[in-house]
């Protein structure tokens, strides 16, 4: 039996789930397809969500139920040399009040919650499903081919929300192949520390959070930078490096992360 939808969204990250939520609220039959066991299972970015007012347009008062770690009230940019550092530090209590300016998130928790909101609105969430190809009628995209039984799903609209290196966008001829100098690789660790200790060491009050981003020698001779984000009872610490520079200097990401932590 042909499975027909009004729209298919591939990828249940924040963009994909937001699209599915908006479409479902408009009364459309929407399939939201996620390759992970659950939405967020494969998402490991930082993460700080800036301009959360956009989220508020979809979900007013989202902060009352969303799994937010902390609210970004302080941001530090640190420029590192081999033996010196210069920091620009900004903080304000205004950002500790709704609608907030930035959110400290753990993507597996947040993405799962947002996909659940799309489901509540009527979207059909299909997890543990890989999309292998687009389906065409002549030159028109009419659906997707999934790696599962009865894997053909049809819709006049397909939204590729499958990440920066989107296979579907390439397949449709909408995205060129990126060169190594145009792409970066991030690696991070999540370190557990109780909430009281985090607030004491970073001089935070209640739900306040700080983002410290590092430029310059944060990744040694490799082009890139580093970051440290405070969560509720963990710290996210990592480095982001240009892939071409990483290969040129024959460095491994975990080595750079170890150097950065020292």
Instruction: State the order of secondary-structure elements, H for helix, E for strand.
Output: EEHEEHEEEHEEEEEHEHEEEHH
CATH C-level of the largest domain: Alpha Beta
Strand content: 25-35%
| Number of E strands | 16
Class of secondary structure makeup: alpha/beta
Radius of gyration of CA atoms, rounded to a whole number: 21 Å
Largest sheet: 8 strands, mixed
**What CATH architecture of the largest domain do you see?**
3-Layer(bba) Sandwich
CATH topology of the largest domain: FAD/NAD(P)-binding domain
How many helices does DSSP assign? Answer: 7
Shape: globular
Low-confidence parts, pLDDT < 50 over ≥5 residues? none
Count of spatially separate domains: 2
Distance between the termini: 59 Å
CATH superfamily of the largest domain: FAD/NAD(P)-binding domain
* Average of pLDDT: 93
Helix content: 10-25%
What does this structure look like?
The structure is a single chain. This protein is an alpha/beta fold and 262 residues long. It has two domains: 3-47 and 107-171, FAD/NAD(P)-binding domain (3-Layer(bba) Sandwich); 72-93 and 180-261. It has seven helices and 16 strands. It has helices spanning 14-25, 53-58, 107-120, 167-171, 195-201, 243-248, 253-261; strands at 3-4, 7-10, 30-33, 48-50, 70-80, 85-91, 102-104, 124-126, 131-137, 140-146, 152-154, 158-160, 184-192, 208-216, 224-230, 234-242. The longest helix is centred in the middle third of the chain and has 14 residues, at 107-120. The radius of gyration is 21 Å and the shape is globular. The chain starts with a strand and ends with a helix.
């Amino acid at each position: 039996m042909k499975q027909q939808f009004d729209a298919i969204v591939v990828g249940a990250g924040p963009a994909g789930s937001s699209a599915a939520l908006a479409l479902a609220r408009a009364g459309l039959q929407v399939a939201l397809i996620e390759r992970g066991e659950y939405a967020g299972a494969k998402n490991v970015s930082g993460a700080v969500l800036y301009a959360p007012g956009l989220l508020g347009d979809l979900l007013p008062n989202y902060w009352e139920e969303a799994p937010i770690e902390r609210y970004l009230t302080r941001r530090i940019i640190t420029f590192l040399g081999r033996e010196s550092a210069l920091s620009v530090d900004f903080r304000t209590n205004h950002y500790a009040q709704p609608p907030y300016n930035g959110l400290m998130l753990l993507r597996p928790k947040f993405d799962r919650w947002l996909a659940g909101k799309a489901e509540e609105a009527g979207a059909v969430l299909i997890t543990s499903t890989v999309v292998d190809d687009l389906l065409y009628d002549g030159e028109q995209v009419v659906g997707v081919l999934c790696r599962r039984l009865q894997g053909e799903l049809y819709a006049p609209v397909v939204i590729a929300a499958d990440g920066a290196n989107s296979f579907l966008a390439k397949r449709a001829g909408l995205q060129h192949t990126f060169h190594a100098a145009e792409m970066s690789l991030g690696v991070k660790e999540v370190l557990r520390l109780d909430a009281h200790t985090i607030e004491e060491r970073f001089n935070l009050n209640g739900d306040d959070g700080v983002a410290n981003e590092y430029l310059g020698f944060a990744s040694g001779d490799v082009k890139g930078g580093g970051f440290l984000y405070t969560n509720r009872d963990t710290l996210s610490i990592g480095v982001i490096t240009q892939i071409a520079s990483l290969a040129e200097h024959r460095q491994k990401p975990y080595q750079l992360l170890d150097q950065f932590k020292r």
